[in-house]
Amino acid sequence: MRTLVAPGRSRTGYVVALVVTTVVLTAVFVLPLVWVVLSAMKPAVELARVPPTVLPETWTPGTYAEAWDMMDLGTYFRNTLVVAVGTWAVQLAVDVPAAYALSRLRPVLGRGILGMMLVTLMVPAAVLLVPTYMTIADLGLLNNPLSLWLLGAANAFTVFLLKRFFDQLPVEVLEAARIDGANQLTMLWRVVLPLSRPILAVVSIFAVVAAWKDFIWPLLVFSDPARQTLSVALQRFAPDTPVNLLLAGLVLSSLPVVALFLVFQRHVLAGLTAGGVKG
């Protein structure tokens, strides 16, 4: 924004441009969410009206409770929670030690290993679907949460973020712990992890949100309706469910991740900016 309107030359123009940009971006992101929330509280007949109404003429907030009961969303919330929490735990258990090893232990060919990890980010996910599915099927893990936990274990982007953060940790603190007789595992658990809470919050939110909203992979591995996640279940209910009830289900399924981000947004910003200025 400062490159478009210089504050020193035109303070008023700068403020106007900033306000307009903020309002436009807020409207782009917020208005669709508001429309979904309000549309879920309209009767199906009013929702199908052309042109559509902005605010409901007949408010039916009970649509949310009806959608919860009709689609048995409690079961799918529980399934999705198991998948998300398990994916988060397995991912941190694998990626934190891997990033620490690449950052502090500096193994032979460590840079090459990290480079090969990052190359996997350039491979389209669709290319890996068939071989991954065949592997999971051969292991007998279909309709098992392990099929999603293991897939999210080695995340190259998470390893990269963690390594970059570990690289910025004060060497003096680690040297002091080493002089006190701490081994590498003790330093990781008692020194590095407490100092890494901001970046751990960031990668935790990324892991939970990605697992919560994932659709293609759960659709492939969970053929049993009783074990499906929210995203898959809502898609299965879509053809035979009134639109207002389906919208209510979509709103309810989004609430946990929105609440998670609002609660931890300060940690997200701190984690993403940590280590940006070295001094």
TrEMBL record:
Location relative to the cell: Cell membrane
Main location group: membrane
One GO CC term, this protein: plasma membrane
Record-annotated ABC transmembrane type-1 domain positions: 77-264
Transmembrane portions of the chain: 12-38, 81-102, 114-134, 146-166, 187-212, 245-264
UniProt topology in membrane: Multi-pass membrane protein
Keywords attached to this entry: Cell membrane, Membrane, Transmembrane, Transmembrane helix, Transport
Pfam families (alphabetical): BPD_transp_1
GO biological process: transmembrane transport
Family annotation (InterPro entries): MetI-like, MetI-like_sf
Origin superkingdom: Bacteria
Xref: Gene3D superfamilies: MetI-like (1.10.3720.10)
Family per similarity comment: Belongs to the binding-protein-dependent transport system permease family.
Listed name of the protein: Carbohydrate ABC transporter permease
Record lineage: Bacteria, Bacillati, Actinomycetota, Actinomycetes, Pseudonocardiales
